[in-house]
Amino acid sequence: MTEQSLNDRNTLSSGSRFVRACLRLPVDRTPVWFLRQAGRYMPEYMAVRKHHTLLEICRTPSVAAEVTITAAERLGVDAAIIFADLLLPFTPMGVDFEFVAGEGPCVHTPVRTLEQVQALQTDRVEELSYVARSIEIVSNHFAAPRADGDELGMIGFCGAPFTLASYMIEGGSSRNYIESKKMMYASGVAGGPESKAWPLLMEKLVEVLTGFARQQVEAGADVIQIFDSWAGALSVQDYREFCLAPTTELVRRVRAMGVPVIYFGVDTASLLPAMRETGADVMGLDWRTPLDEGWKAVGPGCGVQGNLDPITLFAPEPILETRVRQVLAQADGHAGHIFNLGHGIVPGTPVENVQAVVRMVKKLSPQFSRLKVPVVGETGEVKRG
């Protein structure tokens, strides 16, 4: 599929409530979905996990689609995010990893030298096509309009260059990211023995992630979310010097496919103005910063997603409703708000509380709306705002 045809697909789509919000177009109410909405808090997902490992689910399209569809339907959300994992691109790049119980992802041979970076492969992206097949199944399942006449949004995703590099270099999760920052800083010494490692790693990751995102868009993803889970470990200076350019390039390439981009990081309040410079359509906000302050830091011309504290989902319903109202009030009815959590749903979260939040957003958000929904023409034309 050509880039032009991808843009045509976006332009001529009927424009789901979720996609319209991503493009900062008027909607009748605030769309809502949740990070990790298909996960260990949900009994249906745990029943699947009895028979499949995490990676087996990701790599088996019928199963990945099943857990994606089940979560979206049970919660009644406005978008489904495909069930996958950030580290899936490692395998075709030649980096072996596994998930160790109680410890999370483990990269068996961390990438810490220029020679290792040079050995990383970028020509095997087609091996990730199982994610695209999962998206096709989900998109076909939700092809028909829902009871309210809206279409369910389909979200594909990938990791950001820094976050994937940090997993690759550290060998897993990290507290201080020492090895990652050592490689970053080495790139600042012109002519140094390892000065080329970091920029080459960024270049290779952007190439692979671009191909991965394109597969998802061609399969039916309406939006791509880029997760920079560990960007909050960086100072503003380090983010700007070592990460902004490659992330901007990735965002630029994905937007050129004709879909909006959501860019999300954790503990990134200080980085928001710099992250906005990537050109992403929507900035995901964690719960540590009030939504109105985060939106002010992001600036005009950009949507925001968030940002209820996921642990609030354990609160009694009156408290939960108060917090939902607060987030909606902070958004103040401006176009471009997508209701979500400030991070993923955690294990043990009561499913009924997640469902309650969806009902609250649907009921309460029209009260905060400033904008009327325009009439969509017979072609269903929706243009980027």
Q: Could you characterize the architecture of this molecule?
A:
With 385 residues, the protein is an alpha/beta fold. Helix content is 44%, strand content 11%. It has 16 helices and 9 strands. The strands form 2 sheets. The protein has a 7-stranded parallel β-sheet. Helix 15 links the parallel strand 8 (303-308) and strand 9 (337-341). Helix 11 runs parallel beside helix 12. The longest helix has 23 residues, at 197-219. The protein is globular. Residues 1-14 and 372-385 have low confidence and may be disordered.
TL;DR of this structure?
By secondary structure, the chain is an alpha/beta fold. The chain has helices at 3-12, 17-22, 43-49, 54-59, 61-75, 90-93, 114-119, 129-141, 161-170, 178-186, 197-219, 236-255, 272-276, 291-298, 317-331, 351-364, and strands spanning 79-81, 97-100, 104-107, 153-159, 223-228, 261-265, 282-284, 303-308, 337-341.
Q: What's the helix count?
A: 16
Distance, first to last CA = 24 Å
User: Helix and strand string, N-terminal first?
Assistant: HHHHHEHEEHHEHHHEHEHEHEHEH
Instruction: Give me the secondary-structure category.
Output: alpha/beta
What brief labels describe this structure?
single chain, 385 residues, alpha/beta, two-stranded antiparallel ribbon, 16 helices, 9 strands, globular, disordered N terminus, disordered C terminus
